[in-house]
Amino acid sequence: MATSVDARLPGTLNFSNITGTHIHQVVPETTENEKEVEFGDMDNDGEISYSEAQQIFTLNVSEPDPTYIGPKIKNLTGIEAFTNMTYFNCYGNNISGEVDFSKNINLTTLNIGVNNGITALNLANLIQLRELDISFNNLSSLDLSTNINLQKLHISFTRLTHIDVSNNTNLEELSLLGNSLTNIDLSKNIHLKRLIIGGAQQNINYLDISNLKDLEDLSITYIGISSLDISQNKKLKNLSLGFLENLSKICVWELPLPDTITVNLQNVTAPFMICD
Asked: Which residue blocks in 111-239 are alpha helix, DSSP H?
């Protein structure tokens, strides 16, 4: 039974054509690519049928090399056939438009970062999803309400204007850089251990992290907050603050800060103090 397709050479799999019960593949005639296709094409007919697709649990069609200029996947029509897939990585391709993963209900890890053209994303029914990376796309909105088991979420440089993570109470890692957010409510995300937030495009003037008592790594850059209260974040190990021009004070639980914390400040002059 096939469990994995590692087709990291771009162009190995093409989801754009479906005829009858088969998902067509476009496979360059190279020994390396032909070997990779054998993992999914069990009857050696040059196509992956729906029954074959359902026996694939891991699918990697990513292109991690940013300098690569050859063929890349342009759409994911046919991805709905991989209903038992738990891992899917299509990082670094040229996918555009709307992508629907609602039939891929067993996904636990999904990486569609650096495709630049994805404008809408359907993640309904993905209750098992644990890790999601959709950075460097063209999304203005995103519904994560059914993804209640998310632990790692990377949404950077997607043009988001609003994000609701109130249902994602199991989040441990959240990265929000370079979007168009004006606020973010983290009051329900009490298990967060790592938070990265900022970017010159964002206009966030208030940030409350007082409930994040498990927070270990905090990075904040280029937002408009006038104060920062980390007095309840006593498990912090790394604090990185940069280019916070409006920041006038940083509230802490004790001074001097414990030696267990590494502090990195760039263009930040606000003093650390004990606040009432």
From this structure: none
Please tell me the distance from the alpha carbon of residue 83 to that of residue 103, in angstroms, as a whole number.
6
Could you read off the pLDDT of 20-41 as tens digits, one per residue? Answer: 344 444 333 333 333 233 334 4
Going from N- to C-terminal start, the domains of the chain cover 1-106
Pick the closest to residue 193 from 238, 163, 133 (CA basis): 238
For Cα atoms 63, 67, 72, give the angle at the middle one, nearest 5 degrees.
40
Q: Is the peptide bond before 66 cis (omega within 30 degrees of 0)?
A: no
Structure tokens at 111: 């990486």
> What is the per-residue pLDDT for 43?
52
DSSP 100-130: E-TT-TT-SEEE--S-SEEEEEE-TT-TT--
Number of continuous H segments (helices) and E segments (strands) in the chain: 2, 19
Among residues 245, 153, 248, the alpha carbon closest in space to that of 192 is found at 153
pTM for this structure?
A: 0.85
d(CA 242, CA 31): 49
Can you tell me the distance from the alpha carbon of 91 to that of 101, in angstroms, rounded to the nearest whole number? 15
Longest CA–CA separation in the chain, Å: 72
Judged by DSSP in three states, 228 sits in strand
Q: Is the dihedral of CA 75, 80, 82, 86 positive or negative?
A: positive
- Would you call 160 exposed, middle or buried from its count of C-beta atoms within 10 A (0-12, 13-18, 19+)? buried
